Amino acid sequence: MPPQLRSFIEVDPESPFPIQNLPYGIFSPKSQSSDEGDNSQCRVGVALGTKVVDLAVLAEAGIFDGAFDAVAAFRSPTLNAFMSLGPAAWRAARAALQAALSADGPRSLAGNASLLRACVRERSDVALHLPADIGDYTDFFSCREHATACGTMFRGAANALNPNWLCLPVAYHGRASSVVLSGAAVRRPNGQRARDPKDPSQGPVFGPSTKLDYELEVAFFVGTGTEMGEVLSIEQARDHVFGCVLLNDWSARDVQTWEYVPLGPFLSKSFCSSISPWVVPMAALEPFAAPTSGGSVQDPPPLAYLHDARYGSYDCVLEVAIQPAGAPAPPVTVSRSNMACLHWTMAQQLAHHTSGGCPLRPGDLMGSGTISAATGLPAPAAGSGGGAGGGGGGRDAVGERGTRAFLLDGDTVVLRGYCQGDGYRVGFGDCVGTVLPALDRGEFESDGVQ
Amino acid sequence: MPPQLRSFIEVDPESPFPIQNLPYGIFSPKSQSSDEGDNSQCRVGVALGTKVVDLAVLAEAGIFDGAFDAVAAFRSPTLNAFMSLGPAAWRAARAALQAALSADGPRSLAGNASLLRACVRERSDVALHLPADIGDYTDFFSCREHATACGTMFRGAANALNPNWLCLPVAYHGRASSVVLSGAAVRRPNGQRARDPKDPSQGPVFGPSTKLDYELEVAFFVGTGTEMGEVLSIEQARDHVFGCVLLNDWSARDVQTWEYVPLGPFLSKSFCSSISPWVVPMAALEPFAAPTSGGSVQDPPPLAYLHDARYGSYDCVLEVAIQPAGAPAPPVTVSRSNMACLHWTMAQQLAHHTSGGCPLRPGDLMGSGTISAATGLPAPAAGSGGGAGGGGGGRDAVGERGTRAFLLDGDTVVLRGYCQGDGYRVGFGDCVGTVLPALDRGEFESDGVQ
Ligand SMILES: [Ca+2]
Ligand SMILES: [Ca+2]
Ligand SMILES: [Mg+2]
Ligand SMILES: [Mg+2]
Ligand code: NI
What we know:
The structure is a homodimer. By secondary structure, chain A is of the alpha+beta class.
């Protein structure tokens, strides 16, 4: 897409949502009396600067030219129907939208005041909703810098990576029901943790997690699904990736350390996982394709079924910022990383995921795993704050509240990510959550040791 | 329910489905031309002997007396709507059904030939479907005998149980998209495994799993859901359990061993998980409540939030039978176990699951983990065949096909379970699957070592 493409709707050069992006989301008009949207009015929109463009209205006006059933796809309370249509429909929709929203060209809507009145809304006049019905949520662990930092803490630098890590994209199943939209409050979980992590024989205590952490991730949505037993090659897999969001996989490190042997994380990561509301299409990221932090050839090469001839990632800056309760805006940036720090590609992740026959459904969510930059650097490059999954010390950078590496009640954590183009940015928008104090479980709490 | 309760529909004493059971399922009439059901005609039924009783028809006939919106609940392609109504509606439905299907009593339909013609079908005339839209599937690891057998293999008898095992019901998130109905074929998965499991530095190979195993489990469906952040006490949790099915959590042990460090099982258990079609209500199991194999008091006692004042399980015989390809029926029983061998109750599992705020949805599936009997016994008491999760040797008992502990292509595995009453059985019916050979991945296979 030529960078000089420009909409008749004015977009700030630092906005994440120029016409080069056009990310999809689900919105509903706010009612006059409240800030809640009318859920029965949910439909698909794209973000453009500070506006939201109603695709149900544009579909009914015929701008998609019958390339697919646009009314059914866009007058829908989730993106699942559109996701299921596959890349030809996604390309047709994007081309039609860019032509319609462009300042120039024969298909520009610039002069169609009545249609624009019907389809363009201020972002502040709508409520946003989860973009998809998420059938299953898988979380990978695909950042080598992060895996190395974690492994070094547990096993020392010589054995940092487990033997399987460089051979397959390690992953686990997350909890689909606990995925929430950016902005939802994040209640600090109660849970079991070891009384003394160094001596598990002392048994557990129950109470509010004392090691609440964030995880900076990018997640993608599966577009077209697969049948049980259907296997995707790497090239096929690429066509099943619909688009990306930011993901904060909030984690209770003390709960995680105690519970995860031998079946993996469970309650430590299923109390809340926040995603940003706008799904950035892969076509919008494509101009920012770049070698990974490990280079443009995967080293070591994986087995043949995972060989990706188009190995690489995207040059997309990722940031974590924290604003403690009562602190002045803006939030303080505590970490900077990049999507290029992913050792496994999305095509590899999906080819692996289906290699044994596991079926995918439109709307499945696939997290990257925490993305940290440059191995061994301190907090300013870590995608999580500390403890079992973290590079350490993220929360410290805020400064005002002492020396704890983990999140405090009232902290607001903001994830941001964008690709810098020539005079514009293709970004995700913010993924935000504020930590609320744990529920009081009264007599059940036994954490007097903390 | 008095055991002498009896239906006007004749039920064999060894049938799993007497009037004391009345398990719920989803069925559709088979069309005249094929064995497939008409999916657009899916609705709720109960099993009674060899019949299926159509609850949509009974709802329209008014037998549920307006206790809940029975037409909406039962003219539905899944049980989710009925599950969401909660225990008062479940009790009302069951009481109305037992009264209507009873041989005697004022509400018996015995004399209502025209209604019976409309609502009673032969099991062979209908197709069965997944009973619920499963939002999330969690698999626990709650059988102490099984956990001890697994742990002994890995760490020796002295350290068999990990430090957390007796303190919380260990679990992981499974893959909801790969849950299938009994009868579906089970394709042997391809996958990565260590070339030499004793020397991971030799790296992986890719090809058909050589250690395909079954797992004998009982799973329950969540009825009413919970909001994010809502915490259930043990007593509240009990009311969220709708009913139970059998679950065969097919597992590729070689894939599991290689992939599961450190985030738990992934593709080794997400290629297929089979459940029996009829959901046995908790009220039907209640007469068979019994102490666990560890006694009627939990030893050691867990933390207060997990203290279950009604600690116990059910006296429900569980069996695994295998019929190799070409072998004569019936399948050979290779293992016998019992639901009493569960150290953690369903109420404890749900109270723990929600303790950090994780939301539940109607239709969520919760597996027990493999249920093996008596610690240290050989295969005849093991709920899985061998390897990483098994007690060992299950497949050997079949005899005809040599000495491998794991499943061969063509093997049909049958899980059965029932509570023996006085002259009747409350059972699950069979959970069946036949192993198909792996897909040929041609050039991608690298398992020449086997
Ligand atoms: Ca994560
Ligand atoms: Ca299992
Ligand atoms: Mg799901
Ligand atoms: Mg799920
Ligand atoms: Ni769903």
